[in-house]
Amino acid sequence: MRKNTRPFVKREEEALHRINDKIFASEIRLVFEGEEPQVMSLSKAIAMAEEQELDLVEISPNANPPVCKIMDYKKFLYNQKRKQKELKAKQSKVVVKEIRFGPNTDDHDFNFKLAHAKKFLEEGSKVKAYVFFRGRTIVFKDRGEILLLKFAQELAEVGVVEQLPKLEGKKMILMINSKKK
């Protein structure tokens, strides 16, 4: 068994703010809730924080003198993380569902894919419908465009056309966005 030669180093969490003894300035501007900020010595501010059993936190280190506040630092970090988590939960992710047609797609297949597209749009997703031209079928560009325009017309009640049919290489693409927000 090989012995680990490196000593165990406890990784200290890199603080976002300097607190208590980690503040270097000799004078600081102490901010209170609902009162005027006061300029005082660092030792006096730390004594005030210890008296209240709270932390002295440097909020604006670049100011002259640095701005500090007396607060419960762990509680402050917890509330910050919770706010970030709530903001992340409120963000909506755009989901794009693709539906593929051929230029000679039959009515039954068209209606089947139309039903799927309606379901996707009602869920709030975007739909990217495209006609794929394989080989010599590229000569049927007009059929593909008619098919996509008919598709957009059928979905008018649940979706809004974001991009009209546009040929990109071997694909003619139509983007439809959900009306439901």
Can you describe this structure?
The chain has a four-stranded mixed beta sheet with strand order 2-1-4-3. It has a four-stranded mixed beta sheet with strand order 5-6-8-7, covered by helices on one side. It has two domains: 20-84, Roll (Ubiquitin-like (UB roll)); 96-178, Translation initiation factor 3 (IF-3), C-terminal domain (Translation Initiation Factor IF3, 2-Layer Sandwich), CATH 3.30.110.10. The longest helix has 18 residues, at 73-90. Residues 8-14 have low confidence and may be disordered. The protein is built from four helices and eight strands, in the order ββαββαβαβαββ. The protein is rod-shaped, with a radius of gyration of 31 Å. It has helices spanning 42-51, 73-90, 107-123, 141-154; strands at 27-31, 38-41, 55-60, 67-71, 96-101, 126-132, 159-168, 171-178. It has 181 residues and is α/β, with parallel strands linked by helices. The protein starts with 26 loop residues before the first strand and ends with a strand.
Quick gist of this model?
The protein has 181 residues and is of the alpha/beta class. The chain has helices at 42-51, 73-90, 107-123, 141-154; strands spanning 27-31, 38-41, 55-60, 67-71, 96-101, 126-132, 159-168, 171-178.
List the helices and strands and how they pair.
Blueprint: E1 27-31, E2 38-41, H1 42-51, E3 55-60, E4 67-71, H2 73-90, E5 96-101, H3 107-123, E6 126-132, H4 141-154, E7 159-168, E8 171-178
Parallel strand pairs: 1-4, 5-6
Antiparallel strand pairs: 1-2, 3-4, 6-8, 7-8
